[in-house]
Design goal:
The chain has about 180 residues and is of the alpha+beta class. It has one domain. It has four helices and five strands. The protein has helices spanning about 1-55, 55-60, 115-140, 155-184; strands spanning about 70-75, 80, 85-90, 95-105, 105-115. The N and C termini lie far apart (about 130 Å).
């Protein structure tokens, strides 16, 4: 019978402890959330510093070139976008800059460093390559002829097919006529 009495006493003793444990767990979760927010703010601040270091580079890009759309996005993972496919994120340790490019084969790391000048140099090379690619695309584009000037080889081929069919049918008719006259 003493087991039944102890069980009742233990239940009364557990409830206050559980309530205290839940309160403590909520406090710890709030502290972790605060730390995560502080880390994200630190990431954004470091990306803003890099963004300011890139200002002289993008001041040199001619205004008519609209390849680049630079800016810091503050999502779950803050990013400094250079253009539609390249951006800079902070590494896992939140101190290293990682310059990456999205390709059809996946994401590739173009540069990685703790130092802002190293990343600025990598972005400068990337911007220069993109501008040269744009120049080649603008020069190498073939001129498109109007539809009226284009040759229509399929129609000629189809016409030759019909002509051959008619000549073959005429030859068979002539052969059949010759064979019927010969049998008379």
């Amino acid at each position: 019978m003493s087991d039944g009495q102890n069980t009742g006493n233990e239940v009364r003793d557990i409830r206050p402890r559980l309530r205290d444990a839940l309160r403590q767990a909520r406090i710890e979760a709030a502290d972790r959330t605060g730390v995560v927010v502080e880390l994200r703010d630190a990431e954004v601040a470091r990306l803003e510093i890099l963004n300011e270091a890139l200002d002289p580079l993008f001041a040199e890009v001619p205004a008519q070139i609209d390849l680049f759309d630079r800016g810091v996005s503050q999502g779950e993972t803050p990013r400094l976008w250079i253009d539609m496919v390249a951006h800079i994120v902070m590494g896992r340790d939140k101190r290293i800059y990682r310059f990456v490019q999205d390709t059809r084969f996946g994401r590739i790391v173009l540069a990685e460093s703790h130092d802002v000048p190293v990343i600025v140099e990598a972005v400068t090379g990337y911007v220069a390559r993109r501008m040269v690619e744009r120049e080649h695309a603008m020069v190498a584009a073939p001129a498109v002829r109007p539809l009226a000037e284009r040759k229509r080889p399929r129609r000629r081929g189809f016409g030759m097919f019909v002509l051959g069919f008619l000549l073959g049918a005429a030859a068979l008719f002539a052969f059949a006529l010759y064979a019927s006259l010969k049998n008379f």
